[in-house]
Structure formats: structure tokens, C-alpha cells
Amino acid sequence: METIQTSRLLTENGEQCSTCDFREQSKQLRLQLIKSQILSILRLEQAPNISRDMIRQLLPKAPPLTQLLDQYDPRVEDEDHATTETIITMATKPNPTAQEELSSCCLFSLSPKIQPRNILSAQLWVHLRPADMVTTVFLQLSQLKPGREGNNTRVRVRSLKIDINAGAGSWQNMDIKSLLQNWLRQPGGNYGVEINAYNSRGEDLAVTSAEPGDEGLQPFIEVKILDSPKRARRDSGLNCNEKSEETRCCRYALTVDFEEFGWDWIIAPKRYRANYCSGECEFMHRQQYPHAHLVNKANPRGTVGPCCTPTKMSPINMIYVNSMENVIYGKIPSMV
């Protein structure tokens, strides 16, 4: 409703505004549209109430995420190609009944975006505590399933032999793509998993919960999924700056700052160049761009109004935390 009212205000007062005033109104409308568009695309009724301190606790101190943050490139990629999205899901504590059965059990609340047919890869990451000597560790993954008389049973589904050196702890990963696909096809049988990493002396080196000193070291699943490509029209138009005296429809620079929004749940980018359009639509321009012409016809007061629309929108790459506290790296369409 706020967006519609703002749009009506622009339409009714467009002729009375100076060029600079109208640009400012166009800019503010664009910012409001970006906010609502991001929430709509991510299927959020409102921005997640996640503080910076919560973000620090949620982010795993592990290679997949640290590499993304270190090498993060805010430039917009070409949206004509198929794209991938990376979703990181942290382990959570199981319900009390399951906890009695499995001391090292973990649950993973997977994003509904993850489907069996769109999974490119799936890795389970486990942090091992430091070993005081060179040793061989057997990383084991067992699935918790309901048994007879209400008792849960363990079924070993993966095992990995790892040689580790003495010294600092380390992250280890295990391929679970086929397992994850099976779990998604039979969600009713997913009661959680047990993770162990026994050394030669029978000591379990796996970190399975965020105990004091182990924050950010609990297990997580890294899933890469495939997005379908979308094609966009390729057109050119005018580019102007704020000091320009151009009155025709033109693209102006606009930087969106998510920190100014108070959106700490967006990890990266903290800001990006979104741009906005403003100006008058001439007759020839309306003929060349039918969509702009249709919007212009809806403005009975003349050509000065919200007729100036983009002919191409491009996506941005974003790392964010959703309401389920999943860390997601994906492409948000139509942001530039």
C-alpha cells in the first residue's frame, strides 16, 4: 500500500515538481521498491530480526563461507547463464527424546529451495578437535531411524578414514549428495544423524554442538543447487548524473546501503549500485519501448510522471541469513 500511495503521489504532483524534486521522489520510490522486492523474492513477510551479534554466532568459521567472503565480488554477473546457489545449514540440537538415544545427534532444517533434482553437490562439514599425536580418525555418519517399541536405532550410512597430524583442529568434509537426495524423497524418516570421529584410542574428536569455546565449529551441510536461466532484453539508454540538466528519461546512479536499512541479516554485499530511472518520455521513446508507453498512458496529466521505466534489469549475488537461520549465497534477480 505504501508503494501504491507513493506512486499515486508521483502521478498527481508530477507536473508541479521541479526536475530535481521529481528525481528525489523517483529515488525514494526506487528504494522502497527494492526493499519490498527483496522481501517478496525471499518469501519473507518482514525482515528477519537478526542482530550483528547473532550473525557472528551463526556464521561457521569454515572454508566454504570464509572463501566466499574473502573472494566476494559485488559485480553483477550476466543473468543469461544458468547460475548456482550455495545454501549452508547449521546443525541444531535434537528434541529431548532423540537426545537420550544419541549423544552426538544433529538435526538440519533444510531450505525448501533444496530439492532432489536440483542438487549439484552436498557436503557435510565436521570440525575435529586437536590431536596430541599423529593418528588415523574414522569419521562416521549414522542415521537415526525409528525402531520397534518406540526405540530409535542407528544405521551407519557413511564412513571416511582420515590421517591427521598433531596440533590444531581441522575441518573435514564428506560427500552426502545421494544421502541428502534420499532424505528429501523420504522426509518422514529423517530423525537426525549421529556424527563421530574416533581416533586410534577410541576418543571422539568430532565437535557436534556449540559448547563454550566451540562457537561456529558445529557441523553444517553445504549444498549447491542449480537455478534455471532467465533471459532479458538488451537495450541501451541515457546515463546521467545528478548535476545533469537532461529532462528525458535517463538512468541515474543510486547506491543502496543495507546497513542504513538496519538489515544486518544481509551479510554481503553491504551496499550495491542499484540505479534508478527518471525523466520525461518522448513520443519516439514510447514507440521504441511499448512497456514505457503503456505506463505513460496511465498518467492522464501528461508525460512528466512514472513513465520512465528500465528496459533491462540485472541480478546481484548476495549472502544472507533467512528466518530459519540458514546461511544462503544466491542470486537476487532484477536488482540493478
From TrEMBL:
One GO molecular-function entry: cytokine activity
Any one annotated GO CC term: extracellular space
Signal peptide (UniProt feature, chain positions): none
Entry keyword set: Cleavage on pair of basic residues, Cytokine, Disulfide bond, Glycoprotein, Growth factor, Secreted, Signal
Membrane spanning stretches: none
Oxidoreductase keyword on record: no
Predominant subcellular localization, coarse grouping: secreted
Localization, UniProt: Secreted
TGF-beta family profile domain ranges (all copies): 231-336
Pfam families in the record: TGF_beta, TGFb_propeptide
InterPro entries: Cystine-knot_cytokine, TGF-b_C, TGF-b_propeptide, TGF-beta-rel, TGFb_CS
Cited function: Acts specifically as a negative regulator of skeletal muscle growth.
Complex and partners: Homodimer; disulfide-linked.
Family, similarity comment: Belongs to the TGF-beta family.
Listed name of the protein: Growth/differentiation factor 8
Organism: Cynoglossus semilaevis
Lineage, top ranks: Eukaryota, Metazoa, Chordata, Craniata, Vertebrata
